[in-house]
Amino acid sequence: MTSVHNTLKKVHHRRKPRLYVALFPTGITDNEELSSYDWSFLIGPKDENKPHVPGMQLRIRKVAQLWVLEELVVDDVRNTGSLAVRVLIAKIRDKSRLVQLIKDVHRVQDDDTWNTRSWIADVLNAMATTGGVVGRSVLNWPLVDARARQYVADKIAAGRYAGPQDPTAPRPTWDLIDDKEIAP
Description:
The protein has 184 residues and is α+β, with helices and mostly antiparallel strands. Helix content is 31%, strand content 29%. The protein has one domain.
């Protein structure tokens, strides 16, 4: 019986959902470092070898001058509207606890310097200090921030977004855990 239990545990371990940070262009170019991208989280399955890969997006946005959290079901986590890039940062151990942790992270109001990028940093800090939520992961905010911004800058420089884009094609994805590109 123990052998069956261990085998099932290993299979479950390999199928852990994935957590990505996602960058979406805002169209604002006056403060490139802080404002040119909205940041959010995407949660999706490990196996993305299907025509559609449903998942979840967790994001914040300003509504009536207050930051509110939105939990959205997405048809395909590889391509959600204006998504520029995804960066894989964690293998999820407990999805419901992770979602609750994200919901519980304080959203700073009445501070013009606080934004979606600040929120991602705050959530990663909370994840790093909370055990059992994620497995293999990269939660170091300066590393995640630098790699995500460099990755999208590299894609822009390479002409990835020049000309018409296939609206159904997967967007560029970097695996920060294994430090490699998994979708160009």
